[in-house]
Here is the input.
Amino acid sequence: MPVMESAIENLVLEQEVAYRLGFFAAIFSVMLIWELLAPRRVLSVSKLQRWTNNLGLLLLNSFVLRLLFPAAAVGIAYSVSEAGWGLFNWLALPFWIEVVTAVLLLDLAIYLQHLMMHRVPLLWRLHRVHHADLDIDLTTGSRFHTIEIVVSMLIKWGVIALLGPALLAVLVFEILLNGMALFNHANVRLPRGVDRWLRSLLVTPDMHRVHHSILRNETDSNFGFNLSLWDRAFGTYIDQPQRGHDGMTIGIPEFRDPRQVDRLPGMLALPFRN
Here is the structure.
C-alpha cells in the first residue's frame, strides 16, 4: 500500500471514534437549531417525553454495541484487509475509486437491508419500534430496537467481509449514514424547489417522512437513507404522501398509546406484542 494511503488508513483506525462522535454531535446540533427555527409539522406528543426515551434507547444501544462489538465496523474492515478477503482486495482498484465505489455499495446494502426489515415478518417486529414513534424528528433517526441494532451490525460485518473495503470508505459511510439519518428524519422545512432539486440525489426530510406514514403502502416506500436513486431504480419511490405532509398521520395503526411506544420499557417490549 502506498505511503499516503497507509497514513490515511492508520489515521482512520486511530481516530475513528472521535470522527464519528464529532460529526454526529455537530450534525445533531445543526438539525436541532433548524427544527426550532423552521419546523415542518406541529408535533402531537410531548417533546420532552419522546426525546428522553428516544435518546435513552440510543445510549442503551451504544453501550450494548460497544460491549458486544468492541471492534465496530472500521475494526472489522481492518481485520478483513489484513486477511486479504473481499472484492476490493482482489480487484486492486485505485484508492479513491475504491473508496467511492465502496461507499455506494455499502449504501445499496443498507437500502436492501431496510427493505428486508419490512418484508420479513420477524424482522418487521423489531423494526416497527422505529416506525411506532407518534411524531417524527431528528431523534427518530436513532430510535431502533436493541436487537435490530445487533442484527444490523452482523449484516454490516458480512457485507464488509464480502467487499473488503478501504477503512476510509467504511468511516465515510458510517458518518454519512448517521448524519443522514438525523437529517432526513428531522422536522425541518425546506423550500419546495430546494427539496425537489436536492432529492434528485439525496433523501430529503419530506421524501423520508412519507416512509413513516400510517398508510402501509406509504410505509413500504422510500427505503433509502442516503441516496434517493435506489428507490427510483427499484420502484419503491413515492413522491408525496396521500394526505399531504400536514395531514398525514405518523406511526403504526395498531400502536397509538404513548405509554407503549414513547416510553423506553414499552419500546423494548414492542416486538413481543401482538
Remarks:
- The chain has a mean pLDDT of 94.
- The radius of gyration is 19 Å.
- Residues 3-272 form one domain.
